[in-house]
Amino acid sequence: MKQLCNLIPGHMVSNLAKKHGVDIQSRTYTPWSHVVSLLYAHFAHALGLNDVCDALQMNAAALSTIRGAVPPSRNNLSHANKIRSADMAEELYWNMMKHLMDTVPGFAKGKVRRGYLRRFSKTIHVLDSTTIQLVANSMEWAKHRRRKAAAKCHLRLDLQSFLPRCAIIDTAKHHDSTMTQSLCADLKPGEIAVFDKAYNKFKHLFGLTERGVWWVGRAKDNMQYKVVRTLETTGHKRILRNEVIEMVVEASRKAYPCELRRVVALVEVNGKEVEIAFITNHLEWSAWTVAELYR
Fold it and tell me: What is the pLDDT of residues 181-236, one digit of tens each?
């Protein structure tokens, strides 16, 4: 824990606390102690407030060697989590990422992809979401059903560094496709986005194509299309179909007016071979490349 905290420059947390007004809200429980407590909660997989406070108080002497950090009381930690700006934590993450990329050779820059994906020089991004269960009577804004509450984290993960590039926390009632545009806002030409069928939104996918961003997704089961031409399957026994298609429904054709690629492959899921259809805007990759990218 101490080694990880020592990677954070001494001035960074105090400067961010002043910028976001967090220093004004703190008296006995400093922003630095708050950051250390939250880091401990994550690394120790703490179960709750009591778990964090009890463990840190039992190790107060060791904690004080981390630039004088002090253990919080339950009231202090709960109050700090409630009133202090989360924007400070977000900016701390991005500042630390930049700091490590500038000072540690190869951090978040190395090609950690193995096997087949080594051939891609451009960054591959994966989009997905996860639902976070919450307590309904404590989180009114997150009410999902009558007696349940949940938030949803939409994440874009960089497969080169395995670090998040974009994360959006929202209520769980909205469909994943509503966040597609925000998640992909800063993708650069030549980069690759991979996502499941929940993020299929033809208007947005056409926008990515116009920006020069390649993408691979799952085809929806009810997608209506016509085959323009059939491409070679390169003799791979797991590739069943490799087609160039166009949308036939007026709304879909208007949203995505150019050709798409549809690849159907046998993919092993839970020990069984399942037929899965993929769509992509890249017409030159081999069919197996499309399937491997999604895998």
Answer: 888 888 999 999 999 888 888 899 999 999 999 999 998 888 899 999 998 877 77
State the virtual CA torsion across 90, 92, 98, 99 in degrees, nearest 10: -170
The amino acid occupying position 108 is: A
Question: Crossing angle, helix 31-43 and helix 10-19, to 10 degrees?
Answer: 110
pTM across the whole model: 0.72
Scan for tokens 């059939």, then name that residue: 230
CA distance 147 to 133: 12
281/250 Cα distance (integer angstroms): 19
**3-state SS string over the chain?**
CHHHHCCCCHHHHHHHHHHCCCHHHCCCCCHHHHHHHHHHHHHCCCCCHHHHHHHHHHCHHHHHCCCCCCCCCHHHHHHHHHHCCHHHHHHHHHHHHHHHHHHCCCCCCCCCCCHHHHHCCCCEEEEEEEEEEECCCCCHHHEEECCEEEEEEEEEEECCCCEEEEEEEEECCCCHHHHHHHHCCCCCCCCEEECCHHHCCHHHHHHHHHCCCEEEEECCCCCCEEEEEECCCCCCCCEEEEEEEEECCHHHHHHCCCCEEEEEEEEEECCEEEEEEEEECCCCCCHHHHHHHHC
Q: Which residues contact 250 (CB under 8 A, 6 or more apart)?
A: none
Quick check: 215 and 194 in contact, CB under 8 A?
yes
